[in-house]
Amino acid sequence: MIQELTHNFKVATTAAAATVTTGAGTILEYIPDDIGKVATVVGLVLSVLLFRIHLVTLKQKQLDFKISKDEYERAKAGRESPPQ
Fold first, then answer.
1. Within 10 Å of residue 43's Cβ, how many Cβ atoms?
2. Has this prediction a pTM greater than 0.85?
3. d(Cα 19, Cα 39) in Å, to the nearest integer?
């Protein structure tokens, strides 16, 4: 379930919007500084977490692509070699 949440675009958008809103509220002095600081730290942690997860996912997809490409090249080479 956690993995589904971390890969959800709506969750990422909501976290970003909440961070921006609390930051703007703190600057405009609508929100006390302590709450704004906590919200900023939470937003930073969520952002770093989402970046890390997406980088790991990207790395895994690149690895899967390389494996598929290598398998394709081996299969292609096997078909092109003359029978013995």
1. 19
2. no
3. 6
Burial of 60 (0-12, 13-18, 19+ CB in 10 A): exposed
Query: Distance between CA atoms of 74 and 77, rounded to whole angstroms?
Result: 5
Helices (H), 1-84: 2-6, 9-27, 33-80
Residue pLDDT tens, the chain, 84 long: 666 666 677 877 787 787 778 778 877 888 787 877 787 787 778 778 778 888 888 899 999 999 999 998 888 888 765 555
Distance CA 67, CA 54 (A): 20
Assigned token pair, 20: 């921006």
Q: What is the DSSP letter of 81?
A: S
Where along the chain do its domains lie? 2-80
What CA–CA distances, in Å, run from 12 to 29, 48, 57?
25, 11, 15
